[in-house]
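Ligand: MU-OXO-diiron. Inputs:
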Amino acid sequence: MKEALVTAVNDQINAELESAYLYLAMSARMEERNLPGLARWLKIQWEEEIAHAMKFYDFLIQRDAHVSLKAIAQPEATFDSPLEAFRMVLEHERHITSRIWELSELAADESDYALQSLLKWFVDEQVEEEDNARAAIDALSLVGDSGPGLFLFDREMGARTDAGQAAAE
Ligand code: FEO
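Predicted complex:
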């Protein structure tokens, strides 16, 4: 693999692990707010981000490229309400989408068809990630950020059983 691509994929491993760390911190904040369903949803999201990092990790190993793990920044997981929390999730996922698209452009420029093939999965995954966050924002905007509506929404989000299941299905 070209060195620039190896560096970019290693940077993406770091970005996915930072995403995982952010969602785990947000999950802890939801526990503190007595919202176990939202905490569970975010914890599953943490697992999903670890799986994303490992897809890139395994790809580098398979391509006989050097894996270089970097420091993970302390997450900024402070929010005033569940609605604000999911707005943060959407903003973060948009940031990740732009990274994936940049990486896709680099892989195309360098004619690395194997990396392009892997990134196709991530391009599709980001559509789902943003859609999940938007669904949660829409639901929270409707039911409100407190009271019985939030209680029911928390229960619904807590029904998520595996990484990849859409929010508010
Ligand atoms: Fe790995 Fe949520 O994007």
